[in-house]
């Protein structure tokens, strides 16, 4: 009997599709429960939480979530984001380019100040904390951390992922709280519900958009574009839109499915059991996330003084989270998706292209300073 059970467990661990099926069950249950208790973006948060908990409780199963599923979810989100861009909105964004530069720089300065404070309180080297505190640059910072000598990769990963998880939870709760009065969310939901009844409106146009989105995603990955499976489809959709070939909004069930595809993947990213000094790092990550969100909230109030945009749009534009998650929330609350996407996209590209060489320069200067200080007189 024991041999049979061991054999079944072994076959389950070796069969990726069975492991994926089990993971999907947990993700779907989480989505339904979070929808039932009226949590914001339930299929993202619910699937993420239940997959994370399930993977810790049932370690013998070895939960699995294919990267292709997550990439498909990102393609769907990229298409939705691209639909919000028209010629008039792009002109409007052009007028906001100076403020994009200003507020991106301010947010990064705030992140550096928080990193300095945490490094001072914890004794963890400043370069490690700084790489873990740069908002919206998870993949870039982890890649850079692997190349820089003396960086604790585990701490960087955990700080980045835990901050992202905090933002995924806290930002929706703030947006749907009385602080913002998201009255537009109900109207948006009604409009989406109306669109969902007319699936035929998607065809045959959706096939061209689907092919373009996939091709742009694959080309973006080939040329190592940041978040290629999100930005590639978004760019392809924008180009088709501007050419006069109009796309249609996706039904809510498809958007919920894209949330599920993302949530299951994120849920497997957190592995706190591999972390040293768990309590201290967790407390520091919470402190860092809270201060960064609070500063983003303050900057968003300032941004509304520069441009005639709503508080919800402003906050989502400057929230230090992932562009895909902020786009999903903006869609839910009827925010200006094009403005949110442009601010998030600008910060992503700035972090991808400008921040790594800047950090390398800073760290080299710090290393030279230490060597000079330790040189015998």
TrEMBL record:
InterPro entries: AbrB_dup, AbrB_fam
Keyword Transmembrane in annotation: yes
Key words, A-Z: Membrane, Transmembrane, Transmembrane helix
Gene Ontology biological-process annotations: regulation of gene expression
Superkingdom to which the source organism belongs: Bacteria
Name of a matching Pfam family: AbrB
GO cellular component, one term: membrane
Membrane-spanning intervals of the chain: 17-37, 43-65, 72-94, 100-121, 164-181, 201-220, 227-244, 250-270, 282-303, 345-363
NCBIfam families (UniProt xref): Gneg_AbrB_dup
Protein name (record): AbrB family transcriptional regulator
Phylogenetic placement of the source organism: Bacteria, Bacillati, Bacillota, Bacilli, Bacillales
């Amino acid at each position: 009997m024991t041999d049979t059970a061991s054999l079944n467990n072994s076959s389950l661990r070796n069969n990726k599709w069975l492991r994926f099926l089990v993971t999907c069950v947990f993700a779907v249950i989480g989505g339904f429960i979070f929808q039932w208790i009226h949590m914001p973006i339930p299929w993202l948060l619910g699937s993420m939480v239940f997959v994370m908990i399930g993977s810790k409780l049932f370690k013998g199963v070895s939960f699995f979530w294919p990267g292709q599923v997550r990439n498909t979810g990102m393609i769907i989100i990229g298409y939705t984001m691209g639909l919000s861009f028209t010629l008039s909105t792009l002109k409007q964004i052009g007028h906001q380019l100076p403020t994009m530069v200003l507020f991106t720089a301010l947010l990064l300065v705030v992140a550096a100040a928080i990193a300095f404070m945490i490094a001072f309180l914890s004794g963890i080297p400043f370069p490690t904390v700084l790489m873990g505190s740069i908002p919206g640059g998870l993949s870039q910072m982890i890649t850079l951390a692997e190349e820089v000598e003396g960086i604790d990769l585990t701490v960087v990963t955990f700080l980045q992922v835990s901050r992202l998880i905090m933002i995924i939870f806290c930002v929706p709760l703030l947006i749907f709280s009385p602080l913002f009065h998201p009255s537009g969310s109900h109207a948006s939901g009604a409009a989406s519900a109306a669109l969902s009844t007319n699936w035929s409106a998607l065809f045959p146009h959706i096939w061209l958009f689907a092919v373009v989105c996939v091709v742009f995603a694959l080309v973006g990955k080939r040329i190592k574009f940041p978040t290629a499976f999100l930005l590639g489809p978004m760019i392809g959709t924008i180009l088709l839109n501007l050419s006069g070939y109009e796309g249609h909004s996706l039904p809510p069930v498809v958007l919920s499915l894209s949330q599920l595809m993302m949530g299951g993947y994120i849920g497997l990213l957190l592995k706190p059991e591999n972390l040293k000094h768990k309590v201290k790092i967790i407390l520091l990550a919470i402190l860092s996330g809270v201060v960064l969100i609070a500063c983003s909230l303050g900057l968003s109030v300032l941004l509304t003084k520069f441009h005639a945009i709503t508080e919800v749009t402003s906050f989502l534009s400057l929230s230090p989270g992932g562009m895909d998650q902020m786009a999903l929330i903006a869609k839910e609350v009827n925010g200006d998706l094009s403005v949110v996407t442009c601010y998030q996209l600008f910060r992503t590209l700035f972090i991808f292209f400008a921040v790594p060489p800047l950090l390398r320069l800073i760290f080299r200067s710090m290393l030279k300073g230490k060597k000079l200080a330790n040189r015998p007189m």
